[in-house]
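testing teh design pipeline on a random one, pls ignore if ur not involved
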C-alpha cells in the first residue's frame, strides 16, 4: 500500500510537533463542513458579514478544534503525539469559545438561537465521546450533526427563521454528509484495520484483475478529496453571488 496505506488519513502529515495539529484539524473535512455553514448563510434572503464571520469561527472552534480533539482522545485514531492534557484543553477552549460566540449572538438574534447552541454542544460531546454506548456515533447522526445542522444554523443566523429553503438545503447537506461518512468509514477500515489482502476480479473475457489494498483504497480517497474542495468552491460561489446581489 505504500505511504498511502500507512498514514491514518489521506491528509495526515508525518507525526510530530506542528504536523500533529495539522492532522488533528482534518483540514479537508473541516473545510467541507464549514462550507455547509456558508451555504446556509448564502441561502438566506440576506447576508450579514458580521454574523457570517461569527458563526464560521464558532463552528471552526466547536467542530474543527473541540470535536476533533475529543475524537483523538478516544482511541488515538490519528496517532498524533499531542499529550492528553493538551487535547483536553483544546477541546474545552474550543467548545467554550464556540458557546461564547453563540451567547453573544443571542444579544442580536434573540433566545431562539439557544436551541442551536444546545444541539451543537450536545453533538460535539455525544458523538465524539460516544455517549449512550455509541448509539449516536452513526452515519445518520454524523450526517445530521455535521451536515444538516450547519446549514440550518447558518440560515437561521442570517434569516432568523427556518423555512422550506433551509430545510431543503439541510436535506442536501445531510445526504452529502451521509455519503462522505460511508466512503470515509470504508477507507478507514482498509487503511487502519486491514494488514494485508487483495481482491481478484474475473472479467468477461476470462482475464483476472488483481487489486491490492492500495487499489481498493484509492477510489475512496480520490472521491473524498474531490468532494472536499468542490464543496468549498460551491460555498464560495454562493456567498459571492449573495454579496453581488
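output:
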Amino acid at each position: 500500500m505504500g505511504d498511502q496505506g500507512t498514514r491514518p488519513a489521506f491528509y495526515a502529515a508525518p507525526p510530530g510537533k506542528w504536523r500533529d495539529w495539522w492532522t488533528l484539524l482534518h483540514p479537508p473535512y473541516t473545510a467541507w463542513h464549514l462550507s455547509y455553514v456558508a451555504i446556509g448563510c448564502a441561502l438566506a434572503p440576506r447576508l450579514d458579514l458580521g454574523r457570517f464571520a461569527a458563526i464560521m469561527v464558532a463552528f471552526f472552534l466547536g467542530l474543527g478544534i473541540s470535536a476533533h480533539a475529543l475524537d483523538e482522545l478516544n482511541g488515538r485514531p490519528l496517532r498524533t503525539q499531542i499529550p492528553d492534557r493538551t487535547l483536553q484543553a483544546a477541546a474545552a477552549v474550543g467548545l467554550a469559545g464556540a458557546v461564547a460566540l453563540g451567547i453573544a449572538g443571542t444579544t442580536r438574534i434573540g433566545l431562539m438561537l439557544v436551541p442551536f447552541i444546545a444541539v451543537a454542544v450536545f453533538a460535539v460531546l455525544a458523538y465524539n465521546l460516544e455517549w449512550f454506548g455509541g448509539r449516536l456515533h452513526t452515519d445518520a447522526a454524523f450526517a445530521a450533526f455535521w451536515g444538516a445542522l450547519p446549514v440550518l444554523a447558518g440560515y437561521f443566523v442570517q434569516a432568523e427563521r427556518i423555512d422550506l429553503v433551509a430545510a431543503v438545503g439541510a436535506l442536501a447537506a445531510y445526504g452529502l454528509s451521509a455519503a462522505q461518512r460511508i466512503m470515509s468509514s470504508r477507507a478507514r477500515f482498509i487503511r487502519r484495520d486491514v494488514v494485508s489482502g487483495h481482491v481478484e476480479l474475473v472479467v468477461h473475457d476470462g482475464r483476472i484483475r488483481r487489486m491490492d489494498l492500495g487499489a481498493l483504497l484509492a477510489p475512496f480517497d480520490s472521491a473524498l478529496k474531490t468532494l472536499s474542495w468542490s464543496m468549498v468552491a460551491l460555498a464560495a460561489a454562493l456567498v459571492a453571488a449573495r454579496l453581488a446581489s
